[in-house]
Structures are given as C-alpha cells and as structure tokens.
Write a structure and sequence with these properties.
The structure is a single chain. By secondary structure, this protein is α+β, with helices and mostly antiparallel strands. The protein has six helices and ten strands, in the order H-E-E-E-H-E-E-H-H-E-E-E-H-E-E-H.
Length: 308
C-alpha cells in the first residue's frame, strides 16, 4: 500500500476546505476522499451539506474486535460523540473496509498546520482507545475552523432559540436561556444553543442501555458506529452514549439555515431518526421478542384443546 506523509495529507485537506467553502468556478471538490498514512491509519475529508460543514476524519484498523469481549473501544467512541457535541463535536464511527474512525467537523476554510495538528490528535486518540479505552481523552487542539472557533452573535442566537421554542409550543423562555426541553409522546429531547452561537443542537434520549450486556450490547454498539459512519456522507444526526448509558441521537444545524419552513421539517427528521434508532436498539436487544420454550425434556407445549 502506498503511504503518504501526514504533512502532504494535511496540505491536501487544507486545499479541500478552501475549495469547499469558496465555491470555485470549476466546481465543488469530491464529496469524499481518503488517503493511507501507513498500514494502520488513513486520513480523509468529506462534505456534510446538512450542517454546512466539511469533516476531517481519521481511521484506524485493528481495533480489538473479538466477538467474545466487550467493545470498550467502540463505547468510548460513542461516549466521545456525545460528550463533545457542545464543543468540537467529534463523531466516532466505524467502516468495515477502513476500521474505526474519529471525525472533526469544520465550518470554514483552514490552512494545513492546524489541520495537521488536529489529524495528529485524532490519530493519537484512536490509538489510545485501542489500548486504554477507559482513560480520559487528551484535549483536542482548537482549529481555527472548528465549531469552537467560528463564533456568532449571542443575543441574536438567543432570540432565534426563543422563536423556535414558541413554534414547539414552549412558553416564553427566560432571558439568557440557552436550551429548552421537548417531548414527542414518550421520546424526550432537548434543544440547545451551541456555545459558538452559530449552531443548534437537538438531542433525543432513545433507550436505556444499562441492562444490555454481552453480545446484545456489542451488537448495539457496532450498529450505532455504523450509523455514525453515514454522517460522513451527509446525514444530519449521529448516535452517542451518555454517562447514564442512554443511547442518544444528536443533530446539529447552522442557525442561519433555519427558517419557519426548514425548522419543523428538520426537527421532524430528527424525531423520525430517533424513533427508528430506538426501534433498532430494541430489535437488537431482543426487547419484546416473542420467545417460547418447549416443555420438560424438549417436548413442545400443547395448548388446551389441541392434539398432542
């Protein structure tokens, strides 16, 4: 396999961000690409049109994938996806052909040196999760184009949040409010302003996974990571795991992209994805499965009135 210096990949990534955000006359860059760094690692970029970002992704092959062990590294990726949603917004995923991944959304064009530093940090974090998934992650360096660095107007963002809350039937928010809660039947959620004041975050809490163990829990973790890999192809939500072991879905979108028409349709999309994710988790965990057992000695149970 041909390898590439990380500096060369960072330079290509920087050129990709400039092409994606500056809309050159000769057309947009490819929707997605990846390049090998060495036999175990790849780096790549993708455009996510739903939240207006470009995504820097690091992949690592060789995660411990023995089916008789807990997927601790996979759980660490999902917890990172949830814990960073109000900061850098890292996305943990997995692709069968490339391995486990960690992604950083970018919201503006960026030069090569900070992208190289970010790629280094993503790769180190993937390696750390392989060897010590329970350890605390090192802080990710701030990239001039990530969600923590591209800032908006706080007062305008809070006014937008109050308007969106009213459309959800929520009474007037108190001054300075940064979030409000929603409930769709038995699906609880929260709408939150990102600290950058440019993004809106919607979380739904879809399933309590604390009782899931063994192969059933492993199947849920793997499926959630596969869902997150689709975030690289433009999907508008990712799956996480919070500190209480709740499976969550999170969507983020730029406030400037929301109006009275887009907001209800986008929110309904998030609700639909959350409910479908809940249904998937229930199916994988065999919840409400109709399982019958034979009688003593393996004989089939005979209902009253039926012939044996």
């Amino acid at each position: 396999m041909a390898h590439n210096p990380i500096s060369d990949i960072a330079q290509a990534a920087a050129e990709y961000t400039h092409a994606a955000f500056n809309s050159p006359a000769d057309g947009a860059p490819p929707a997605q690409w990846a390049a090998p760094l060495d036999d175990q690692h790849r780096l790549g970029m993708a455009i996510n049109p739903n939240d207006g970002s470009v995504v820097l992704t690091a992949w690592r092959r060789g995660f411990n994938d023995a089916p008789d062990t807990d997927d601790l590294a996979g759980e660490a990726l999902l917890r990172t996806s949830f814990d960073t949603r109000l900061g850098a917004g890292l996305i943990g995923g997995i692709a069968p052909e490339l391995g486990a991944s960690l992604s950083l959304p970018l919201y503006a064009a960026c030069d090569a040196p900070p992208l190289q530093a970010a790629a280094d940090a993503l790769l180190r974090e993937l390696d750390r999760m392989e060897s010590a998934p329970a350890d605390d992650a090192a802080p990710l360096p701030v990239v001039p184009a990530d969600a923590r660095a591209v800032l908006g107007d706080a007062l305008r963002a809070e006014r937008d949040l109050a308007r969106l809350a009213q459309s959800c039937g929520v009474d007037a928010l108190p001054a300075g409010a940064r979030h409000f809660d929603v409930l769709f039947d038995d699906l609880p959620g929260r709408v939150t302003l990102h600290p950058s004041n440019r993004l809106l975050i919607v979380d739904f809490f879809v399933h309590d996974a604390v009782a899931l163990q063994g192969s059933l829990r492993r199947a849920v973790i793997k499926s959630a990571l596969l869902i997150n890999q689709n975030a690289l192809r433009g999907h508008a939500f990712v799956v996480g795991l919070d500190s209480r072991d709740f499976v969550t879905t999170t969507g983020r979108i730029a406030l400037e992209r929301l109006d009275d028409d887009i907001w209800p349709r986008w929110l309904q999309y998030q609700v639909t994805q959350a409910l479908e994710t809940r249904g998937l988790v229930k199916s994988l965990s065999l919840q409400n499965a109709d399982i019958s057992f034979g009688g003593a000695g393996g004989a089939a149970t005979v209902a009253p009135g039926e012939l044996a």
